[in-house]
Design a protein that fits this description.
Helix content: 25-40%
Largest sheet: 7 strands, mixed
Distance between the termini: 19 Å
Number of domains: 1
Number of helices: 8
CATH topology: Rossmann fold
CATH architecture: 3-Layer(aba) Sandwich
Strand order of the largest sheet: 1-9-8-7-2-6-3
Length: 314
Amino acid sequence: MHSSGPSPYRRFTRDQWAKLRDDMPLTLTADELDELRGLNDRVNMDEVVAVYLPLSRLLSLYVAARQKLFRATQKFTHAGDRKVPYIIGMAGSVAAGKSTMARVLKTLLARWPDHPKVDLIPTDGFLLNNATLERDGLMNRKGFPESYDVRSLLQFLSDIKAGKKNVSAPVYSHLVYDVIEGQSIVIDQPDILIVEGLNVLQTGRPPKDGQAIPYVSDYFDFSIYIDADEEDLRDWYVNRFFTLRETAFQDPKSYFHRYAKLSDAETSQTANRIWDTINLVNLRDNVLPTRQRADLIVRKEENHLISTMYLRRL
């Protein structure tokens, strides 16, 4: 991330950021981290100590400040509203490691005493189902902004922010590559909700008549973007594709079972073709342009480990 003019961000090297942990204890074990780690993601305990513990401390401070502001507003308005959940948005490219970061953060944040109820919702469940995508000619645009049921996602976030109980969200299966009919995740008044997805920081053209059109990010209290070079993202995607060929793709129920018997050369060719025609296009056109909207940009290097943090100035 380069800027020739004044930056709205403060830059921290990994070592500088690690010192901000203060005396926060490590509450995550190596076995737990193994369960949280995604395919081919190399996050280790050193990464948790240097990056994730300071981040969870920062977020806990932000949550406490927001709760204090809520109480002040409640006192001013004489309202009896219940405190609303603090929502963290997490964006970034395919293969950037969003899911792993979200799961590790969820686990760490839930171990702070003042906000023990932390939930995580991937936006994959709000993709239009395959039948609809096929009908509308959008199967090759899956993951692009137009492939989501944005209205349902906005309603979900609105209900969460309103403090409603038992708010349902659809479930997506990466095995069958589709939304699972009749299944749902129920989110019940969490202290913190992490919303993870490719395009969660996306905006659109404002209407000329000035009518309000909410964006998903309007419901976020804090947002994170995971950044990396295009070629590193490509390599991670291709490596993950090879791993999936030997694991999930072997299941006859897998949508990608047809790739299970590809040779190494065919697997590389297929993965690179999918990256070039779908994921890279989405990254350049839709995902990367939202990077500057994040409150925190975390920069990953070729080894998949975080090297630099850019925290938006208040």
